[in-house]
Specification:
single chain, 2 strands, two-stranded parallel ribbon, globular
């Protein structure tokens, strides 16, 4: 996701190019630059819907690891 190895580098690179970046994750990123953060568990459809409505992104990049849902 946005706080993982790929996501945090992508978020930083996009922010450096002037993009408005919002990271959705269960926990805040360790270090934040210009990125915004919204608390969201992607396994919870209602939280994803609320985060999407609140931030109204033009594009979404999903980089979360595979989920195990039992």
């Amino acid at each position: 996701g946005g706080t993982g190895l790929l996501g945090r580098h992508l978020a930083a690179a996009l922010s450096a190019r002037g993009a408005v970046v919002t990271i959705a994750s269960r926990r805040p990123p360790f270090a934040r630059g210009e990125e915004r953060w919204v608390c969201c568990d992607i396994a919870n459809v209602e939280q994803v819907d609320q985060a999407y409505r609140r931030t109204q992104p033009e594009q979404v990049v999903q980089l979360a690891a595979a989920l195990q849902i039992a």
